[in-house]
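Ticket #4471: structure export looks truncated?
Reporter: QA, pipeline team
Priority: medium

Steps to reproduce: submit the single chain below to the structure queue and open the exported record.
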Amino acid sequence: MTSPAGPPRGAGPVAVERRAGPGPAVAYVLNARMYSVNEATASAWHTILRWVGHRADVDAAVLDYPPPQPLPALWGRDDLAAVFMCGHPFSRAQPQPIPIVAPVPSPPAYHDAPVYWTCIVARVDSGIRTLADAFGRRMAYTTPDSQSGYQALRALVAGRTHPFEMKGPLVTPRRVVEAVLAGDADAGPVDSYAVDLLRMHEPQLVAPLRVIATTPPTPIPLLVASPNVARTKVERLRDAFAEVEHAPALRDARGALLLRRFAAVDAGAYDVLREPSGEALI
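Actual output as written to the record:
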């Protein structure tokens, strides 16, 4: 299936257009669409982000920005206070957004670190048990600029030319899951944190799926601010996110998000995601 082309292979960092857009009548916006896999998680993220904005004394509000609106347009705004951004475009953006913090999921597999990986999923009844079983078959994907939904899979099959019939762009991890469940694709890559959130809140949705492969861990998507945000506001936001772990008022929200804490960000850690390796999948 034809999809919009990503950056040319071997191209330099992506220049991100900075522009304002519609949104709340406040100075800055907050957004956690990347990990709002359903209404329950969206509500929990809203609770945490509103608390952080108030705690940091930043004039900000949660922006409603549902799919299929393009995330690159959101990341290019000049009024971001704390918005989730995928590590691959973050590593290539010029100017680069300001890193605020990164989430640390609570399941033991994350080892109390701000990392994640990609789970390649297929239907249990499909007969696909390994990644090799999926070669030559239909592979769903989110967008070419997604680390978990495309680039991680690309690196995993580096050296193989056109190993799948690609189906997309489907934009969100949930849509990849739904495509596999509906039989519109035979397998698909899904962000591990998104998978864990779906397992917790909608176990019946993912029960028909098995994980047939996983990619090596990489730095998890981070919360960023626009490059023009004042350093004093950035520091207040970081301090507020650091308090989330211990705030009694956020206990339920943390539980709903399988969220242990937020960690300081080493922007250089994302450099490993800058240059994709292997052949293009589409």
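Status: closed, not a bug. The export was complete when the record was re-opened. Leaving a note from the reviewer for reference: Residues 86 and 221 are 5 Å apart (CA to CA).
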